[in-house]
Amino acid sequence: MNVIETHKLTKYYGKDMGIRDLDLEIQEGEIFGFIGPNGSGKSTTIRTLLGLIFPTSGSGKIFGRDIVKESKEIKRHIGFMPSDVNYYEKMDVAELLHYSADFYGKDCSSRIEELAEAFALDLDRKILDLSQGNKKKVSILQSLIHRPRLLILDEPTSGLDPLMQNKFFDILRQENRDGTTVFFSSHTLSEVQKMCRRVGVIKEGRIIAIEDIETLRRKQLRKVEVEFASADLRDRFTIEGMISPRKHNHALNFMYSGRVEELIQVLAGQEVADLLIEEPTLEEIFMHYYDEEEDPEAGKGGPVQ
């Protein structure tokens, strides 16, 4: 069963595009990563799914319900953590969380106490007196207190110290084991790598790839650095499968999508001073998708510019 499903979901702000033709299927019980740089359309996607803004065209469903016509009912079963939070600053933390719980018609007292203890959050402090990190903790609690079926998280770890980030990830994993589906939006790929099984890559409002994390790890890409005896040899070197070449002194750095033995054979006929071949990080694979979008000819070989 798909918890989130969209078909050609599109949002324009006047003439400016927010998102275009988004097709997503997020399965019940998964932790799905949604990655892209700031301004790529992540927050617009989330706000549209939540019914905070209306789509220009296309459609979306959450729990099989229409995100426009049945938004009120959908929200009862969602926990949402925005990237930035603004609260009633004269309230104390406990007042704010109990006020939030009232919207769900639930007594969340024990849950609030449990989560406040886990995150070392003082329930008696005024919102006005909290640091940004503690305000972020309040946002985490607010999204979790009613035990939602779906968690939608927009840049959830900004402002959290590394210890609290690890605590947060542990709690997310437990919530997921208990049946909660998680939609995890971030521009930090390492966070997504820790948490998610599948990832969608968004650029300029369009989905450019949806992959399993393990598939990304197994991509037949290698990071190569070759130091040649001269800059002239470096400039003349080319091989099929070379992606995004970069020059530095006598060295050439590139991603390589071909067979390693073929690379070694070609280099054997060159004056090579040093050679490094290693697996790229997930971050570097991610940037490879962006390079391919910007240059469709990337990876086809040819002279280095």
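The record above closes out task 2.4. Task 2.5 opens with a second protein, given below.
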Amino acid sequence: MNELTSIPEAGTSIFDRPEDFYQRGLDMVETGKAAVALGLMRKLAKERPDDGLLGELAGLITTHGVPGFHHGMLFDAPRNAAYRAAIERFAPGKRVLDIGTGSGLLAMMAARAGAAHVVACEANPLIAATAREIIAANGLADRITVHAAHSSQLDRTRDLGGGAELIVSEIFHDNLVGEGVLPSLDHARSDLGVPDAVFLPGRASVRVALVDTTLFEDDGAIGMVEGFDLAPFNRHVSRTRNIGADSQRLRLRSAPVEPFAFDFAAQASLATQRQNICELASDGGHVTGVVQWLRLEFADDIAYENLPGANGPSHWTLRYTPLRCPRDTQAGDMIRIGGWHDARSMVIWEE
């Protein structure tokens, strides 16, 4: 039975029963039939283009399980420009692997730059199906192969012609590690690339600095609410807050330091758990907390950094951790900051 035309009752269309349409679409997405689900959406657009309810349900289906960061990421012009400059320099003539291709943008940049061939992988089958559609529409289907799979499922010989010479990735979280970049790139280096494979970015680091902000002045601990003591609920509320990189309500109070840096092309395995203590020297003035951002380095002269206030909006947000006691400082006062990370999480605190 054709999944696009099968109907719950003879003589009716699946579009006549919105609840059936919605459930059918979700079932397709959740069972790996993403291409079929997208076919159903195209059929809906053709047959019922003006049905508001079905249109909204279609939106729920096509965004099911899709992270919300893609929109902001694709509009992050400095990020796109840094990747383009690096890809145009290193991709010509290379076998390229794009890990976590999303829309296929970086893969298409590599193909346009003259890569010998590009293999792109995307673990979300719905996104992978759309990437194939976008790549074909841009005339690059013969130069880019998209796998609806996590990079750990690829094989160096079967899928990469003996190994990728250039490995491109943009699977970085606000805290750098949260999307699993460390195990993914460790595996790519040991199992998918040639011995001297180039990584873009080749190095990434976390930067922290002292900061003064009034953003969270009223964001105190939970206590009495409507006459009830809710203090135990504080254990479920993170002290870390996210702030837009273009916020005008941050004042840096120190030069940055790097508690953690990662060299993706190094032969040694990436450390998936570390702890570090560093000292930040105040420039003077009121200090309320520590702000954290990331830096991606592609070459000596190509880098991206969502430095607070420097590059305008960034799809990566800053992470703010308050000090135990906000305080006035004199120039040169030292504040000790601790940091810890594993393969998925990172925390910063005041020693």
